Amino acid sequence: MKLVLASTSPYRKQLLDRLQLPYETDSPDIDETPLANESIQDMVTRLAEAKARKVMDTHPDSLIIGSDQSAVLDGEPLTKPGNYETAFQQLRAASGKRIVFQTGLCLLNSATGKSQTICVPYTVVFKALSDDQIRNYLLKEEPYNCAGSFKSEGLGIALFDHFEGDDPNALIGLPLIRLIEMLNKEGMSPL
After folding, report:
1. Measured CA distances, 110 to 5, 45, 137 (Å)
2. Residues tagged active-site
């Protein structure tokens, strides 16, 4: 079976490359609007599966990976900031607090239509940050297309006190430990 990543995220591609399995990518164009009264966990798992199913028809006999992520601070979802001002406000609000990243993961077997889905949480605990530290970070890294306004795989690591969770890859958007378990159940292993 072919392996397909239903994403154009360069971060997810970099993570999947680590498994050294051949794969293709496809762009799932779906409506990502949250449903009324939908929990963040339910939303990310629903969207991960919707992304995989969106490309299913063009990839028969494939294992399709869908993933979606949302960051939560004080019970409210964080978006990709898009600009300096929004990023500054997000990091100021996160200073000294916890952000929980909820990453939905789906592995869909397009031959059978059966899927495995899970939500993998990962928590980032921020140091108390001064406005100067936030400003300097944003000017150096410009993480405006990243939920929560930081890149943990880059200089963003300087913002954190510690991490909490089972799979640090979930923070970047593709929980590889859980994905390997799912692939093994489908008879595909990177080893």
Report:
1. 13, 17, 43
2. 68
Is the domain defined by 2-185 classed in CATH 3.90.950.10?
Answer: yes
Tokens of 151: 């890149």
Written as six digits, the tokens of 7 are 């994403």
**Shortest CA distance to 66 belongs to which of 117, 11, 31?**
117
**What's the pLDDT tens digit per position in 146-189?**
888 998 888 999 999 999 999 999 998 999 999 999 999 999 99
- The answer, as to whether pTM is greater than 0.85, is yes
For residues 12 and 173, the answer to whether their CB atoms sit within 8 Å is yes
Ranges of each domain in the chain: 2-185
Cα(99)–Cα(168) distance, integer angstroms: 14
The pLDDT tens digits of the residues spanning 82-132 come to: 999 999 999 999 999 999 999 999 999 999 999 999 999 999 999 999 999
Buried b (16+ CB within 10 A) or exposed e, 146-181: bbbbbbbeeebeebeeeeebebebbbbbbbbebbbe
